Amino acid sequence: MSTTPEHDERIAKLIFASVYPHYVTKVEKKGRTKEELHEVIQWLTGYSEKDIENKIAEKVKFKDFFEKATINPNAELIKGVICGYRIEEIQTPLTKQTRYLDKLVDELAKGRKMEKILRG
């Protein structure tokens, strides 16, 4: 299933700080930690702990969040279905990067080992 321009635009306008608490809740409910969540975000984006905190405080949109990120070259190894979309078939880079993050958070919450999540 391919994304629509409206779907891509909706993701671009989402504020990272509004989604972040849901990520934290999801992983903590399954026995993982906020620190592990940050490790996953740092691996994908290249952001430091301070960068992540600043992005939350500045209430940046996903568009800006990923525009300034240095996406890990191994992110292309993230495959599968998330939110009804097959990641490897998504054409819009921003939507694909957002789904990468969703998939990593999902894997963390499901108890996958960190070295597998980080494609190590």
UniProtKB/TrEMBL annotation:
<dbReference type="InterPro" id="IPR014580">
    <property type="entry name" value="UCP033199"/>
</dbReference>
<dbReference type="InterPro" id="IPR023204">
    <property type="entry name" value="SP1917_dom_sf"/>
</dbReference>
<dbReference type="Pfam" id="PF09966">
    <property type="entry name" value="DUF2200"/>
</dbReference>
<protein>
    <recommendedName>
        <fullName>DUF2200 domain-containing protein</fullName>
    </recommendedName>
</protein>
